[in-house]
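S.,

As promised, the nicotinamide-adenine-dinucleotide run. Input:
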Amino acid sequence: MVKIVLLPGDGIGPEIMQEAVKVLEAVGQVEGISFEWETADMGGIAIDKHGLPLPEATLKACRNSHGVLLGAVGGPKWDDLPGDLRPEAGLLGIRRELGLFANLRPAKVFGSLEAASSLKQEVVAGIDVLVVRELTGGLYFGRPRFREALPEGGMRAVDTLEYTSMEIERIARVAFEAAMVRQRKVTSVDKSNILESSRLWREVVNQVAKEFPDVELNHMFVDNCAMQLLRDPKQFDVIVTTNMFGDILSDEAAMLTGSLGMLPSASIGGKVGLYEPVHGSAPLIAGQDIANPLAMILSCAMLLQYSLGRPRASRRVEQAVEAVLEAGYRTGDIWQEGYNRVGTKAMGDLVARAILEGGAYGKS
Ligand code: NAD
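Predicted complex:
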């Protein structure tokens, strides 16, 4: 029995979560995996019901599970609360509490969606990049961090960029291990021509690389990487980088694929991994059965791969999504003239059916 905690959250979160469960039940049926579901509150709904975004009971349920699926949190209703009581504080809290130091964001272009990218089709066709971002260190967490008034007038603000060799080593290892089951190529991105922390980053990545002789490693400065992602994204397999560089580059890589509604992510490193779509809670379209559930569904594929060690089941989910797109079905956000427009539930049904039928069925 595999125990999965569901954190549907706010906005479109609950709707897309229902489709994720439907799809996992289908893949479970085919692959002989029995799931036990536990739903817990996080984000705005947790604030409304319990007065804080990440209740202890939610954390406890997550710690006792094999994996956590998160929909999305936040919305205008909670925007005026102080920082530590906002829904997003729950996100930082759960990453910290579960020790999730590695964020994995694949950017893959499905053949049938190549035209949705803002880049030329020949540039994006076949893109399959995985950005591995360090998630709990670097500039976003470094201390000291403060603001002060200067005696001569004006202000001074300080953030600190620091990395320990241990933090670099463990994220590098995640990247090399991921590369081993992909194209066996790692690009480590830093700014070692300027930053001391980047020079340590490069040294440690080189050390870890010795454990993975089958993986090709190259280093790239972050500014060059930002350019190369637009010029020739197909040169990349796995990109590993710091928290801030990864924040920016993973969004850039994601947008190569065209649609926010298609992008999954995984946060791993601790005993239990967390899987969520890259998009937010899209409050304006919530409750209308129009949200795209595919990012959430593809996050389930990552859960199967990284937390449950079921690569074949994971591939089944991805292939089913591909088959449904290939058959011409689209939710509103990726719809174009000539395609079959479907809602959230229908899209989930189609993917589940494709899994149960082995992905083979034609355009309606
Ligand atoms: P958003 O990702 O929710 O929405 C951006 C745009 O994309 C909107 O037009 C939305 O309708 C559309 N969109 C997003 N997901 C979609 C889907 N699955 N199908 C179809 N269309 C989709 O970002 P936002 O509007 O900046 O933020 C809304 C709320 O979500 C805010 O409260 C924000 O703080 C929160 N947020 C949460 C997370 C998270 O839970 N990890 C991430 C980002 C934003």
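The chain has two domains: 1-101+269-364, 109-259. The chain is about 40% helix and 20% strand.

- D.
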